[in-house]
Amino acid sequence: MVERNLVNVLLLGGGFMLIFTSFQTLGNIEQTIIDSIKKDVPSFNGDGYTSLAIIYAALSLSNWVMPSVLSAIGPRLAMAIGAITYCLFMASFFVPHVVLLYGCSVVLGAGAALIWTGQGMYLSQCSTGETISRNSGIFWAMLQMSMFFGNLLVFFTFQGKTHIDETTRSIVFAVLIAVAIVGLVLLTCLRRPSANVGDLPVELNTEVRPRQAFLNAIRLFQTPRMILLSITFVYTGLSLSFFSGVYGSSIGFTNAIGTSAKQYVGLNGVFIGVGEVLGGVAFGLLGTRTTTRWGRDPIVIAGGVLHMVAYFLIYLNLPNSAPFGNTDALSYIQPPSAIVAMCCSFLLGLGDACFNTQCYSMLGGVFKSQPAEAFSIFKFTQSVAAAASFVYSSYCGLHVQLVILVVLGIIGTITFCLVEFAVKRERPTLERDYEK
What is the pTM of this model? Predict the structure, then answer.
């Protein structure tokens, strides 16, 4: 039984790894790619930041209906449908047209809500209170391996190029779509989770009506504990949009880094992936032990410190105008250091793994009786923040963005710790009641 659920988690992680090998790579290079498309197709005036903002806005709005959808079709079918929308979005780049780009962005946003809410519910169903930290870490590590393969492809195909020509773009798009299709096939192989034993009892109603599921999500969102966690979720959304879209583009647009600046966009993704995977593996292998002994808060605090260090180094290394396009401006480190930039990428990835593995552990463990509702709220708040970030990224310089991240990072770390402290106080009482 335990082995079957572990196989399910591995299949889940493998499917997401392949799908997001494609999408995260494309998100990382989208602004750079679109900048090159505009030079080849003058009539095309799309914007990468706007596309990403639309995706996350649609995702956030769609999340409110996802508990109802999942109650009707289940998490496995939801994830399969969601995966198809990722393939459609990437295929749209073969025909550069503004309406098609933004239309597919809306479709992908709805599909992302399906795949992520389904993933959270399915992971929770495959886990117990004792295995949720392990399974979250395993899933996160496998997911973030996606940062390696696609970005290595970008690193080598973009080598020596200041302009990404149509042939190069077509090769990258074709490979990414093929990889995503294989990921979709893996998700269709997921089996029904085995019943969990040895866990604290929960009343998980698998036959909640769609309308009731929506109302449950609204009520859960209004609870003090979820309100505090939502601040943490907002921060994870802001940091996600920064390192997945803004930071890589800022490196590529900083001319003083040298002729390899565009290559470093891909290498940046690889180093983020290294940090993400190391964090996921560490908290997957040690998650149960560390959570039982010390709780989730030390890991989240460590993630907050890592991010603060990264933001300070980015402030010193890259110019304020870097997010907007090619620039000859300089910051305090002159010339900008590619080594420092890659170190920051690693710190951003490792810190993000600290936050997200513990958020997954918290949601899958503490809110196990309402997994679809809890993960919908998580993706809603995270996506609203990401969409807002991509909107202000088009207007705010790098330094203002870093200040926003620092402030929300500190507050989000504190609110997560407050909830974790409350969970620690309640856990012994629940265990004593269960023994009786």
Answer: 0.73
